[in-house]
Amino acid sequence: MRIREATAEDWPQIYPFWSEIVEAGETYAYPEGLTADEAKDMWMYDHVVVAVEGDDRNEHILGSAKMGPNRPGRGRHIGTASFMVSSSARGKGVGRALGEYCVDWHREQGFHGIQFNAVVETNTTAVRLWQSLGFQIIGTVPGAFDSTSHGRVGLHVMYLPLG
């Protein structure tokens, strides 16, 4: 597996798992029912990467992450990121590899820290992963996410200082 910058040509492989994850209603608050073009506008901006396997002629995208400043202007020194891993690639270290890439990229770009604004508290796999990478839960907004299977659950704000 390797991680590289995403291109517009990658979107047809990203959109199926992006859509599957959003439509499941367990981890992201994106609107449901978005077309591929609408979803592309929401994902493919700032610094977007893909985790891939295979050779250049036959690459298979396992997951994707987007990252950049959390806020513009005077908040630009704090980064943020979002991650999606294909259901067929879960449990293979793709999320960890994308997370480590994200931390390294933010450090290289001179960010002071990384803030995740909305980690669904019932997404315990993600919460454990981020904590293992040094993120701390600095607050939880109760009932801020309407989970398909759990009802209204909290959204964690998680933070990792970088320097």
Write out key terms for the chains shown.
alpha+beta, Aminopeptidase, 4 helices
Brief digest:
The protein has 163 residues and is of the alpha+beta class.
Task: Explain what this protein looks like in three dimensions.
The chain is of the alpha+beta class and 163 residues long. The chain has one domain: Aminopeptidase (3-Layer(aba) Sandwich). The chain is built from four helices and seven strands. It has a seven-stranded mixed beta sheet. The longest helix is centred in the middle third of the chain and has 15 residues. The radius of gyration is 15 Å and the shape is globular. The mean pLDDT is 97.
Helix-strand layout with pairing:
Layout: E1 2-5, H1 11-24, H2 36-43, E2 47-53, E3 60-69, E4 78-85, H3 94-108, E5 113-120, H4 124-132, E6 136-147, E7 151-161
Parallel strand pairs: 4-5
Antiparallel strand pairs: 1-2, 2-3, 3-4, 5-7, 6-7
